[in-house]
Amino acid sequence: MANIIIRPGWYLPEREANSEQDYQNRRQFIKTLGLGALGVGLIGCKSHESQARLEMMPGDDLPEEKSPNADLYPAKRNDTYTVDREMTSEKDATTFNNFYEFSEQKDQVHKLVEKFEVRPWDFEITGLVNKPQKLTVDELVRKLPLEERVYRFRCVEAWAMTIPWTGIPLAKIIALAEPMSSAKYVRFLSFYQPAQAPNQKRSTWYNWPYYEGLSIEEATNELTMGVTGLFGKELPKQNGAPLRIIVPWKYGYKSAKSIVKIELVEEQPKTFWNDLAPKEYSFLSNVNPEVPHPRWSQATERLLGGEERVETKLYNGYGEYVAGLYSS
């Protein structure tokens, strides 16, 4: 464990995806082929499935089954929560991802999630509660209303995004289980599926599954959300589908992805990165430009999709909502 080097994001290669023009040219080629040669050449195909595969170029995704919750997206935007910063493009937000369960290379995660099964997805709310809950994410989004909020998102590696998330205030999700007064913290547990997540199988020095935690006050703050959608659609697998947490005033690793358990506890829980490198990743992990990471400054951040750097704001700009949580 002592020899592990946890590299910041810019140490990893950011390979360029195919250009939009290349993609459109390829689609046009397929379309032309389908109207001409396929009409004659595929007469002898054995099945509709094999014909569909022949109509596709390598690298294209097979048609996905329509979601039973497609009618819920896009959800109505709550304009109380917005920012005066340009939105990150959907392409950048869904092809540059920290999700170590699949890969430590951010530009590879979206290519490695195909086998990840996110429906049905069971999760539970347990621990110090009066009414423990076991339900699926599909049941959750039908039980509680969804809303869209635009939040800043700040990675500990000093890059940032501006994202329209769709979800449910976490306080409302936790309230389903009726927390006991003795519950002081909330622990989150992510999935463990090595057969579907290649880095869980390969990188055994990490203590999978991922686990995180917040104080009960942080978890029930009005900003904290259980997220099920992104850019007006269901949450992509590479962004933490089908249910992740968003805590916008903290560094991104505090927002656990693909969670299967919310547990209310009395003692401060251990957390994944704090256990791995306690001198670099604290339990608190509030965004603070005055407190550098041991290996780089946190005074500025790079906006994803370009090279522009902007000054980082205390609590990621959400001080009016959360500063009172930390006043002495």
Detailed description of the structure:
The chain contains ten helices and twelve strands. The strands form two sheets. Strands 3, 4, 7, 8, 9, 11 and 12 form a seven-stranded mixed sheet that branches. It has a five-stranded mixed sheet with strand order 2-1-10-5-6. The two termini are 36 Å apart. Helices cover 20% and strands 20% of the residues. The protein is globular and about 45 Å long. It has two domains: 16-61, no CATH class; 64-325, Sulfite Oxidase, Chain A, domain 2, CATH 3.90.420. The model is unreliable at 1-62 (pLDDT under 50). It is α+β, with helices and mostly antiparallel strands and 328 residues long.
Number of strands: 12
Stated plainly, the CATH topology of the largest domain is called Sulfite Oxidase, Chain A, domain 2
What is the H/E order?
HHHHEEHEEHEHEHEEEEHEEH
Distance between the termini: 36 Å
Shape: globular
The poorly predicted ranges are 1-62
CATH homologous superfamily of the largest domain - what is it?
A: Oxidoreductase, molybdopterin-binding domain
- Structural class by SSE content: alpha+beta
Largest sheet: 7 strands, mixed
Average predicted confidence as pLDDT: 86
CATH architecture label of the largest domain: Alpha-Beta Complex
Q: What is the CA-atom radius of gyration, in angstroms?
A: 21 Å
Write down the domain tally.
2
Strand fraction equals: 15-25%
Give the fraction of residues assigned to helices: 10-25%
- Tally of separate helices: 10
